[in-house]
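Field guide to reading this record: the first block holds the primary sequence, the second block holds the structure written as discrete tokens, and the final block holds curator observations. Each block starts with its own label. This record concerns NAD(P)/FAD-dependent oxidoreductase, catalogued under organism Nocardioides conyzicola.

BLOCK 1 — SEQUENCE
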Amino acid sequence: MPDSSEDHVDVVVLGLGAGGEYAARKLAEAGLTVVGVEQELVGGECPFWGCTPSKLLIHSAQQGDDLARAAARIREANHDWHDDQHAGPLEEAGVRVVRGHGRLAGPGRVEVDGTTYDARLGVVLNSGTAPAVPPIDGLAGTPYWTNRDVMRVREVPASLVVLGGGPIGCELAQAFARFGSRVTLVEAEDRLLGPEEPEAAEVVTRVLRADGVDVRVGAELTRVEHDGGFVLEVGGELLSAEHLLVAVGRKPHLDDIGLETVGLDPAQDQVETDEHLRAGDRLWAVGDITGRGAFTHVSLYQAKVAVADLLGADGPVADYHAVSRVTFTDPEVGAVGLTEAQARAAGVAVGVGHADIPRSARGWINEADGIVKVVADTDRGVLVGGTVVAPYGGEVLGLLSAAVHAEIPVETLRGMHFAYPTFHRAIAAALADL
Ligand SMILES: Cc1cc2nc3c(=O)[nH]c(=O)nc-3n(C[C@H](O)[C@H](O)[C@H](O)COP(=O)(O)OP(=O)(O)OC[C@H]3O[C@@H](n4cnc5c(N)ncnc54)[C@H](O)[C@@H]3O)c2cc1C
Ligand SMILES: NC(=O)c1ccc[n+]([C@@H]2O[C@H](COP(=O)([O-])OP(=O)(O)OC[C@H]3O[C@@H](n4cnc5c(N)ncnc54)[C@H](O)[C@@H]3O)[C@@H](O)[C@H]2O)c1
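BLOCK 2 — STRUCTURE
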């Protein structure tokens, strides 16, 4: 048996996260020979350690279920961390799923365990990210949790320190507080959910505190010790906790995939792509590694664009002016497009409108906290961004997403019928405030 072999195919998809899985299936269904390379579980982070299990934890915590029920539903949803429900449909569509670590080996070429796949049309890179772990004194070697570990937890820790006040930290701090843990949330910057509107961060800070979370912003974790439990030095103070969850961002899988063989820098933290998601000669990139928003729906959106390009179809080009995102705290933080600060930095003639959810009829009835904020381009008379913090804020966001995406004139939006008494009616108040 030779040590190495070569195989000729139409397309190799390197990494089968959300976008890679979609692209591989669609390209195979279009009649191409497709190899999909995956080193862990087909489907990637979202179904096994990301979106789905975290939302199951959050839902159970909100319902007042115990953690054991959430844990059982997580195992049921992801088949006990088996990827049969992802790999099976791919193989049925004709994708050859190759298990192992893939590396680019020149334009259109991918090497996996001694076999080189030469892809006539090219390679779709979807290698995604892993949890980032900061170089904090004493942290390495302790049994800290990342999002990978926390989805397997079956017993509520008496106390939990969450490091990082981004979406993962805020969502899980609230869920564990509601399960009964004593939670401390430690954020280095001066507010939670840094990239989102400060008004949204204020609400989230308030509701987390109301849930009993000790929210510490502008706080630095400088030293970690573990001896049965954790002892953590935060701003000179010693905190003890049964567990520590590290949620300080993501590290892209880019340094060990042969980027240098296609003329790209393996030390870069994202892959530049054009409007067709092309990243180089016979190379496309989709998902978190493109730096266009680390969200499943962005990965899927990009994969659709890349597939159209690979098939030579007169398909859509990638457009990011109305990227939506939701942080699934209670209340949810839904946002689309630019924040006020981003719009000002982009030189937009900014107009801003606010509404407070508690002052709306539905907010008062439901005793709900939250805000609506809309950001307009006053020269063009359209919204360029919007944020809704409200119960079902991610659903209410749909109206603002359509408005920003389709550039519906503000005057047209103001003329709509807004049903009474709904949360989305607060958008009318924010538009009136512009
Ligand atoms: C806790 C958590 C909650 C989240 N919640 C949400 C949410 O509610 N909504 C939302 O939109 N997003 C959410 N996200 C983000 C979402 O999970 C990602 O944006 C999504 O997974 C898309 O990632 P991706 O397509 O870039 O690839 P990934 O899911 O990262 O998958 C990449 C795949 O490539 C494989 N791979 C990497 N390198 C190689 C190699 N060299 N050879 C072979 N295989 C390789 C990996 O094993 C992996 O399976 C959450 C993330 C986390 C961690
Ligand atoms: N609902 C959703 O869509 C959802 C949910 C979870 C995660 N995600 C995605 O996953 C990605 C990762 O999420 P995340 O929350 O880990 O990352 P993040 O980068 O969004 O937030 C990390 C936070 O940790 C803080 N931080 C960094 N180093 C720190 C330190 N040493 N001490 C204290 N704080 C520190 C940062 O200031 C930041 O606020 C995000 O980009 C997000 O897009 C999405």
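BLOCK 3 — OBSERVATIONS
Residues 382 and 409 are 5 Å apart (CA to CA).
The radius of gyration is 23 Å.
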